[in-house]
Amino acid sequence: MSDSTGRTPVGIDEFLERVRAGYRRIDVREAHEAARTGAALLVDIRYAALREQDGVIPGALVIERNELEWRLDPQGSHRTPEATGHDLRIVVICNEGYASSLAVASLHQLGLHRATDLVGGFQAWRSAGLPVQPAAR
User: Fold this and answer.
1) How many CB atoms lie within 10 A of CB 18?
2) What's the rounded Cα separation, in Å, for the pair 127 and 120?
């Protein structure tokens, strides 16, 4: 069954699979090492209630999902100082690694071709025993 554009709609699972086929996701150890050495910018897109409940990754830049593209577009008037160029390696982190994949697809469309996301999200980071601190209030 096709929609009004003549395309067959896909479900979210297939859509995620297609999005993820366009880049290589990274695991917690690789993300931790990249952040530790300054090779990547970790960006936490979880909403405030989850950060307050579970804590944050030290050094990660917090940008809620609804502001992500505006804050990371190196050409944007609302960019964060960390948005230094299209070659910036960004690791997007959501709670479990689903919303972050969709966010990466959007960042790729803005030309941030090195953006990726964390397999398993924040929960995988915490489960691996990597550093977490209470969220600032």
Assistant:
1) 11
2) 10
pTM confidence score: 0.93
Cα→Cα distances 76→4, 45, 70, 72, 110, Å: 33, 18, 6, 8, 10
Please report, for residues 105, 109, 130, the alpha-carbon distance to residue 5 in angstroms, rounded to integers and kept in the order given: 22, 21, 46
Structure tokens at 90: 């960004």
Alpha-carbon dihedral angle through residues 39, 42, 43, 46, given to the nearest 10 degrees: 160
pLDDT tens digits, one per residue of 68-114: 999 999 999 999 999 999 999 999 999 999 999 999 999 999 999 99
Q: Which of 57, 50, 55, 137 is nearest to 91 (CA)?
A: 57
The pLDDT of residue 2: 67
Please give the Cα distance from 119 to 125 (Å, whole number). 9
